[in-house]
Design a protein that fits this description.
It is built from 26 helices and 30 strands. By secondary structure, the protein is an alpha/beta fold.
Length: 845
């Protein structure tokens, strides 16, 4: 399954460092990005002050690529934390991995060098006494100079560099380092990432050894560097060397935009060969009072020979600055020679050459001349450096190179890597808004927007409304012709029915009306469904303009406001269905249980304040995190959420349904999906509700005689379930896996006098104890009821390893024509399970 999510790190009260909890995370799962499954609906819930609004604001900030000081956590001791928002793509299906790797292979890694920034740079490299002694011992050298000559020969070859963590087994003790690699000599220099106080401008090498390239950690990610290194053993960096902190910073930034070892960017490690995965991220952070945006997408560099007007101006401004600097140092040039000419003559020659090319666009000519000027200044530096401050020379060659992301997501999935994320603020329209007098036309928001779409001057329309009838009729025909484009796009986007809608204009004496027809019959907005009216508003606000499309995200805050309960349900259905058809993901922040569907709880995400949890793993936790797997039992105290849980239960029609509680959202998704296609006309419809696991270990055990422990957590879970069921006035039935945790729950409830009469626990083994065939001895979890081919087809074989159970099972639940896509073996096992559950009698009947 290929997925995307958004990660909050130290963003206001979301994802605060060191506050992660079991069942909660700083990751908002957005679902699948596979072509047939992308889009749909997510419901974002949260109690008062839990941070639901911060979640929406974070999504908007990511879309706008903009963060500010107000996004820094407002907790004591956290003032220096860096707010980050990360859009993450995880690719696990082999066909997409292969497609992406083919795209990446088109980019030669060796071409991803830092030539444009460091070609003419020379950095000092200082070696520690220990590294020198090791070299002498290994090479049997007698002097430091022999080591220097040996290393310098290696450093003069083609080099590659990488910033990474060392290889200590204890992760807590790992430290960052820079590896400078020579592939030619199979040699690596290990350098410090820190600036040393004694020689801040040099690289500090603490170890230099011969090592095969394939043995060097992450050598495949090393970047080719075309700078030079000058070895020195004294603490003072030579004058002719550049500041190595530039190189250290560049490599650190490159490290932070990768997926292999950054603290911010953890890779998705495959659990098995089959579970190989790729991970790409967009990272938005607020550092040093500015917003920084970077991605881990592969890059492509393009060399430009010719400048555009913007680049040309930068070049001209730089030369003007250097000519001004010359005025400050020209007196120090008197009597000095450079390259067989006086420095004054050399400078005048450079100026003369510049005037000849000043308005050309050929960048290499400017670069060559600029380097001449730089050498002249360097030649005189010892004369003026103590007396005159000269602006630094910039890297003019960098203007030749532009680096672009290669959007492998677009190539593999047909959606852009960075989606458009829009907060939709509805401007509700009524039939009254679709009419206007000529005098008030310019004040009509609807007609102003409509004529902008139609590319018509509103003043011309006002004049026509005062004209003769024949002229108004001619204008009508013209506007109707222009409306054909709107008709075509509206019908294409409103893809939920086969109805055909047409729009036209009617111009009367000083009056204009926008008219609608459905299948050639006149209609009015007030007579249409809530879903249609919402779409109509959405379409004319921004859908027509093409502002959003497949893969994009639309945020809606409390869309239920002013809507009746039936209208809320109608709107929810429209958003979900339209999102699935169009590939657009709608995320609604809501307080209303009527905007939720009890059989689609996989769509629910909850923002939860950590200090409201019933139990916490750490003392005084800060901020809020996100629950991606909904549980009917809730998570601690929250007045708003408790109202929702209560309302969800009260919305169930028990004359039409039978509730079965299951361990988690995956079981709920799978069984609710099959409930829709299970054939048993005389049975109540089964609804499966998740309780977020049993607690305790779920390891499979070969023997039934192993001692089972009914933990305090499991006991509390059972008591909470009984309390919730009593509120609904039902006897709860809990279906559990045939693993250690499931067996412990069943035995523990049956051994507790206060529990066994109020809760029935059934294991899968109980149901299939008398079954025939292999299933009898191989049933351990719901996914084991599927044939091997179906487990692979729907992703059940690897989803738990990849921590994608929610998304994989959600995709399964939304699969069209599911019955036809299941094997006979899977349907036989599921039918047996459902027949058993349908036949159960509640204890209180």
């Amino acid at each position: 399954m290929n997925t995307r999510s958004i990660i909050f790190e130290n963003f206001r009260n979301l994802g605060i460092s060191d506050s992660k909890q079991e069942n909660l995370s700083n990751k908002l799962q957005l679902g699948s990005i596979d072509r047939e499954h992308i889009g749909g609906l997510l419901d974002l819930l949260g109690g008062n002050n839990d941070g639901k609004s911060n979640g929406l604001d974070g999504l908007v900030s990511l879309g706008e690529k903009n963060l500010c000081k107000d996004d820094i956590p407002n907790f004591i001791g956290y003032e220096n934390k860096i707010p980050k928002l990360i859009l993450q793509y995880e690719i696990t299906t082999q066909d997409k991995i292969l497609a992406i790797k083919n795209v990446e292979n088109e980019v030669d890694r060796d071409s991803k060098d830092i030539e444009s920034n460091f070609t003419n740079k020379t950095f000092g490299m200082f070696f520690t006494p220990d590294s020198i002694d090791n070299c002498k011992r290994y090479k049997s050298f007698n002097s430091d100079e022999e080591c220097k000559e040996y290393w310098q020969n290696i450093l003069d070859s083609d080099l590659y560099a990488i910033y990474d963590y060392d290889e200590q087994n204890d992760k807590s003790k790992r430290r960052p380092e820079i590896r400078i690699i020579s592939k030619k000599y199979n040699f690596v220099f290990f350098c410090s990432t820190q600036t040393d106080n004694e020689f801040p401008k040099s690289m500090f090498c603490f170890m230099a050894i011969r090592k095969n390239i394939n043995e060097i950690k992450h050598s495949e990610h090393a970047i080719k560097i075309n700078c030079k290194f000058f070895i020195h053993f004294d603490s003072k960096t030579p004058k002719n060397c550049d500041d190595a902190s530039l190189l250290r910073q560049f490599l650190k930034e490159d490290f932070e935009t990768r997926t292999y070892s950054s603290k911010d960017i953890q890779p998705t490690q495959p659990t098995t060969q089959k579970s190989e995965s790729l991970c790409y991220k967009a990272i938005l952070s607020f550092e040093n009072d500015k917003t920084i945006y970077r991605t881990t997408l592969p890059k492509k560099e393009t060399q430009h020979k010719y400048a555009d007007s913007e680049i040309l101006k930068k070049i001209q401004d730089e030369f003007k600055q250097k000519f001004m600097d010359w005025e400050s140092i020209k007196d120090y040039a008197n009597g000095k020679n450079y390259e067989k000419k006086s420095c004054i003559e050399q400078y005048n020659l450079i100026v003369k050459k510049y005037k000849l090319i000043e308005n050309t666009l050929h960048i290499p000519q400017f670069v060559a001349l600029y380097n001449e000027l730089k050498k002249l200044f360097k030649h005189l530096e010892s004369e003026y450096s103590k007396f005159v401050n000269i602006t630094e020379f910039i890297d003019l060659e960098s203007l030749q190179t532009s680096t672009q992301d290669i959007d492998v997501i677009a190539k593999a999935f047909g959606i852009t890597f960075m989606p458009k994320i829009i907060l939709y603020k509805e401007q509700a329209l009524s039939d009254k808004d679709l009419e206007s007098s000529g005098d008030n036309l310019a004040n009509s928001a609807f007609f102003t927007m409509l004529f902008k779409i139609l590319e018509v001057n509103i003043t011309d329309i006002q004049n026509d409304l005062k004209s003769a009838a024949n002229k108004r009729k001619a204008r009508e025909r013209e506007l109707d012709k222009r409306c054909e484009k709107i008709n075509e796009r509206f019908n294409a986007l409103y893809c939920l029915s086969d109805d055909v809608y047409n729009f036209s204009m009617r111009l009367e004496d000083n009056k204009i009306a926008f008219c609608m027809e459905k299948n050639n019959e006149a209609i009015y907005l007030k007579q249409q469904s809530t879903g249609f009216r919402k779409f109509f508003n959405l379409f004319f606000n921004f859908l027509y303009k093409g502002e959003i499309g497949r893969g994009d995200i639309v945020l809606i805050d409390e869309p239920e406001n002013s809507l009746s309960i039936p209208a809320q349900r109608d709107l929810r259905k429209f958003l979900k269905d339209y999102g699935r058809k169009s590939g657009i993901l709608f995320i609604i922040a809501t307080h209303s249980p009527s905007m939720l569907d009890i059989t689609h709880l996989d769509e629910v995400r909850i923002v939860k304040a950590l200090n409201s949890l019933e139990s916490s793993e750490i003392e005084n936790p800060k901020g809020s995190l996100i629950i991606n797997d909904f549980s009917m039992l809730g998570y601690g105290e929250s007045d708003t959420l408790n109202d929702i849980y209560k309302a969800l239960g009260e919305n169930i029609r028990f004359d039409e349904t039978k509730l079965i509680f299951v361990e988690g959202i995956m079981d709920s998704n799978i069984l609710n999906a099959y409930s829709q296609i299970y054939d048993d006309k005389d049975s109540n419809k089964l609804i499966f509700l998740p309780i977020s696991g049993l607690g305790g270990k779920g390891d499979l055990e070969a023997s039934d005689n192993n001692e089972l422990s009914f933990s305090l957590e499991q006991k509390q879970k059972a008591q909470n379930l009984i309390t919730f069921a009593k509120r609904l006035r039902i006897h709860p039935i809990l279906l559990v896996d045939n693993d250690r945790a499931g067996k412990a729950m069943k035995q523990g409830v049956e051994d507790e006098e206060k529990l066994k009469n109020d809760l029935s626990v059934i294991t899968l083994k109980d149901i299939f104890e008398n079954a025939s065939g292999a299933i009898k001895n191989n049933v351990y979890a719901i996914e084991s009821l599927f044939s091997k081919a179906d487990r692979e087809k729907f992703g059940f074989d690897t989803c738990k390893e990849n921590k994608q159970s929610n998304i994989v099972s959600s995709v399964f639940k939304n699969t069209e024509n599911l019955k036809e896509k299941l094997s006979q073996e899977s349907k036989k096992n599921l039918n047996e399970l459902f027949a058993y559950l349908v036949g159960l009698k509640e204890a209180d009947e």
